[in-house]
Amino acid sequence: MKKKFFSVFISIILIFCITTPAFAYEPSGFEVNAKSALLVSLDTGEKFYSKNENARVYPASITKIMTVTLMLESEKYSPEKKVRMNKEVYNLIEGTGSAVSGLKIGEEITYLDLVYFVLMASYGDCAYLISLEFGGTVENFVDMMNEKAKALGLKHTHYANPVGLHDELNYTTASDTYKLALYALKNETFKTVCESSKYSVPATNMSRKRTISTTNFLQDQITNYYYIYAKGVKTGFTDEAGRCLVSTASYNGYNYMCLLFGCENSVPRHEFVDSRNLYRWVFNNFSYKEVANTENPVTEINVELSFNRSTLPLYVENGFVSILPNNADESTIKIIPNIKEKSVDAPIKKGQKIGTAQIVYAEKVIGTVNLVAGDNVKKSNILLVWRFIKRVLTSTYVKVLLCIAIIVIILFVLAVIRMNKGRTRKRKVKYIPYSKENRK
Fold it and tell me: pTM for this structure?
């Protein structure tokens, strides 16, 4: 019941939030050891902490998120289907220093077991086994990984092997990994496996039943790093990459993902301590706030072609909810309209989109909403005809014709005047003065 309620609640929130804002705060009371970090709300997409999120980093075993994703998306995948450990895998993993499963050559496990071995326990030999089973060759599988990265828009990610072994060409960013993890978690099997702390591996043809544990100590109750609200996703470590961790946490209807790369390899384990600190900070200091509602008009716009209305109020299409600091100063929250036209023509339907508006908090844009008409407005055909007449009379074409007509009329008048003068001259008779001599 709780799950259902939570899903409905989150759906409402996602409907309210029109865009994904980019917004980060500065935590207080602790420092984040990681070279690159990102804390994001899984409910709204808002960024609450960011540190070099676009810097190139080595992912180490975080690479296995992509490895398992390709496996689960393959048409060949079936949870009960079995795969056999082989000598080629032994040769590939030998001398790498990667954690291994202890599976014997010829030992068979199910595909689902293999997912747990790679994603939860982070066994490198099993990652190679996936690449051979689902790619034919390691090289071909790595090509598949890079093709998938490109398809997902991971512009700053490249893979060189399916394990996460150090390689200059095996790199990513916190921002890219967030996109990848978000995508991977849509798969229910992936989500279930990475959120498990322990898994009982059934007896195989060569071994008894055994139990494996997660490498994410935030999920392990027997460690000092346990955090009750934390779940998956993946750990990673090489000397060059440092300690890395992608995890999620949920509390009281709020859900976040934390990504840390390049933490020091020391005690205490900073990837766990810093993640836990960031989660506690965001859970304790932020909450949902309705930033814009549908009841109060944001602005108004002039209306043309209507006898009844000269202006029209515009409202937010859907209420906008954002996660803001508990002590947020509401006076710093602004709704800034963005309307291209100075006026709008009738007819207009209530709810018709007229423009957009930016939601600004503390001088930073946290979202964008649609602005819609608050009422219906009827069109006046008389005004429409009058507009047509005005446009015709004031058009450049008519102006040119009018100028030509005036010029023609002037020329015609001048011509008539000139012709009349000529006729007058012809009608004139020479005057002979009258005298007596003439009379004789």
Answer: 0.78
